[in-house]
Specification:
This protein folds into five domains: about 5-90, DNA polymerase beta, N-terminal domain-like (DNA polymerase, domain 1); about 90-150, DNA polymerase, domain 1; about 160-250, 2-Layer Sandwich (Beta Polymerase, domain 2); about 270-335, Beta Polymerase, domain 3 (2-Layer Sandwich); about 345-580, TIM Barrel. The protein has 24 helices and 17 strands. It has a seven-stranded parallel β-sheet with strand order 11-12-13-14-15-16-17. A five-stranded mixed β-sheet has the order 2-4-7-6-5, sandwiched between helices. It has a three-stranded antiparallel β-sheet with strand order 8-9-10. α1 packs antiparallel against α2 (about 30-45), α1 crosses α7 and α22 (about 520-530) crosses α23. It is globular and about 80 Å long. It binds 2'-deoxyguanosine-5'-triphosphate (DGT), calcium ion (2 copies) and zinc ion (ZN).
């Protein structure tokens, strides 16, 4: 079964591979696929039912792209894409994520040095070969080397950024759910725990007909290479080289299986020990009574196995949300003093980092962006288009004032929601911010973030962040490090100094829900939470389709043990506004 999301994923793979083939992300063909993807995502119709004529009629979709979509829906593959995949295998594509290795340089590296993967690239750097190529020198060689190290790239144990793995897992789960033989499906492993990089995807299916489920998986069009083809387990590699393990279990053992395969291993070990301490045995089939040591393993009475909740309860524990299952104190907490009252998606009352087409990179109108926020049930919303310093995307003071009037007008149609005229301020090289202080003070709300100068020292980076935090017109710090997971290392910071400053000036730290960012990262969130720093969870939406990121921000905050009460956008309107206005000069 091919879905709209499969079509969009196919187009996005075409973008990546064609930019390599053309030696440029700006080529006409690449732009055409990109534009078509955006247009069709915004379109909202079921893309698998559209005719060639209907596809071409969509503004931004050309004939060549439209016929590839038809080919994909009808045959499950696209010839052009298959050719590109052969030319650029996954371990080579991984190289394109490294900053400083654009498509053009990459093709040179391949033709001149014969480099096909990260391991070979590291070798060439060690032998100082990279610097000999035209356009590269010792400085860029050193920069590339540092990026490889900081991104944690390694040829053999290649990990996939969550932004690439999650959409695929969701599509596979949706597909498996559609089988009548399926009772329940869940993706488990590091993905369910919401790790930022994924080794492989683990999917658990509850069904009494494993043969049917396995036969269905084997023929799925994501399968590029079968690794395991068993009666209850299938493992395959996707064209992007990501491994997927699909396991079928009996419905009455689904809870035990998802608990086991969600892990982490460290969490499982602690749970098993707790079971043993209580005369029980925990494995992937269930929690069993083991008090009679003489008894055959198969005869042991099952205490719980149907749901995870029943198993935790039988272990005399609170239910542990998957993002916390890392073996870092959650088992003792859930067994004793209690877990924190963790922030949940349902607690969120507003989004406070939110763009419209006033920003150069915004893609939906003020009216539409406000409309979807109102439909999401928010009590308050800060529109934070880019300040003037972000040259192409920003607005002048004059434009911002017009924008304020426009927002005030739109607000009249939404009397139940407090609509704020805000700004995403750009933190400059040395901590400077957009406009002058008097003008900045006019905004109802601000988020200040880093968008450039990623290569300064840790001291310089920390200093400029602290300078921004100390500015009385700043309410919050957006996407703290500016990283793109697995693609661009973020700035390096001294977290002790940073957290001290956030506390001193009562500035909130954003957890940005964009899947490529998830920034501040969960380990930084946990440090901040330990010290009582206020948090704010935002989507940084640039289009009406991006509000779902709030869930990803919440999961990241949960991984950082964030309690509801530290998250300012769970507060009711008055409490939130009082805090937001509290710093005004
Ligand atoms: P990944 O795939 O490297 O991102 O990380 P995980 O956590 O998804 O690890 P994976 O796929 O090897 O295994 C999935 C889960 O299965 C893991 O989180 C816990 C469980 N598991 C796997 N191997 C063991 C083991 O040797 N002992 C225990 N207790 N649990 C295991
Ligand atoms: Ca896994
Ligand atoms: Ca696995
Ligand atoms: Zn933004």
């Amino acid at each position: 079964m091919t879905t709209s999301r499969d079509v969009l994923a196919m187009l996005s793979e075409l973008v990546t591979l064609t930019s390599l083939a053309e030696g440029s992300p700006q080529s006409f063909k690449v732009r055409a696929y990109e534009k078509a993807g955006l247009a069709l995502e915004a379109d909202g119709r079921d893309l698998t039912t559209l005719t060639l004529k209907e596809l071409v009629a969509v503004d931004g979709v050309g004939k060549a792209t439209a016929s590839k979509i038809i080919e994909f829906v009808e045959t499950g593959s696209v010839e052009k894409l298959d050719t590109l995949r052969k030319e650029f295998p996954p371990e080579f594509v991984e190289l394109s994520r490294i900053p400083g290795l654009g498509p053009k340089t990459l093709m040179l590296v391949r033709s001149e040095l014969g480099i096909e993967n990260v391991d070979q690239l590291k070798e060439a750097i060690a032998e100082e070969k990279l610097r000999t190529l035209p356009g590269l020198g010792a400085t860029s060689e050193a920069k590339i080397s540092k990026s490889i190290e900081r991104l944690g790239l390694s040829g053999k144990d290649r990990r996939t950024p969550i932004a690439d793995a999650l959409p695929l897992a969701e599509r596979l789960v949706e597909d498996l759910q559609s089988l009548p033989e399926t009772v329940e499906v869940e993706f488990c492993g590091s993905l369910r725990r919401f790790s930022e990089t994924i080794g492989d995807i683990d999917i658990t299916v509850a069904s009494d007909h494993p043969d049917v489920v396995m036969a269905h998986v084997v023929q799925h069009n994501e399968v590029a290479d079968l690794v395991v083809n068993g009666a209850t387990k299938t493992s395959f590699l996707t064209a992007a080289g990501l491994q997927v393990d699909v396991r079928v279990v009996a419905p009455e053992q689904f809870g035990a299986a998802t608990l086991y395969f969600t892990g982490s291993k460290a969490h499982n070990i602690e749970l098993r020990q707790r079971a043993i301490d209580r005369g029980m045995l925990l494995n992937e089939y269930g929690l069993m009574d083991a008090s009679d040591e003489e008894m055959d393993a198969a005869d042991r009475p099952v205490v719980a196995s149907r749901t995870e909740a029943e198993i935790y309860a039988a272990l005399d524990m609170e239910f542990v949300p998957p993002p916390m299952r890392e073996g870092t104190g959650e088992v003792p907490a859930a067994s004793g003093d209690g877990l924190p009252e963790l922030v949940q998606r349902s607690h969120i009352k507003g989004d406070l980092h939110y763009h419209t087409d006033r920003s150069g990179d915004g893609r939906s109108s003020v009216e539409d962006m406000v409309d979807v926020a109102a439909k999401a049930g928010y009590d308050y919303l800060a529109i934070t288009d880019h300040g003037v310093d972000l040259a192409i995307n920003g607005s002048t003071a004059e434009e911002m004032l017009e924008h304020r009037d426009h927002i005030a007008e739109v607000a009249q149609a939404h009397p139940d929601m407090t609509l704020m005229w805000g700004c995403e301020l750009n933190i400059g090289k040395s901590g400077g911010l957009d406009y002058d202080a008097d003008f900045r003070a006019l905004f109802d709300y601000t988020v200040a973030s880093v968008h450039s100068h990623y290569d300064q020292t840790i001291v310089e980076q920390t200093d400029r962040l602290v300078a921004a935090i100390a500015d009385p017109t700043v309410n919050s710090i957006g996407h703290l490090t500016g990283r793109y997971i697995g693609r661009r290392p973020g700035i390096e910071l001294d977290y002790t100094v940073l957290i001290d400053a956030l506390l001193e000036y009562d500035v909130a730290l954003e957890v940005n829900g964009a899947l490529q960012r998830l920034d501040a990262a969960s380990d930084v969130v946990r440090k901040a939470v330990d010290r009582g720093v206020k948090l704010v969870i935002n989507t940084d939406s640039h289009h009406v389709s991006e509000l779902g990121r709030m869930e990803y921000g919440v999961l990241t905050a949960q991984r950082g043990w964030a309690p509801k009460d530290l998250v300012v956008n769970t507060w009711d309107r008055n409490r939130f506004l009082e805090w937001a206005n509290g710093r005004k000069p």
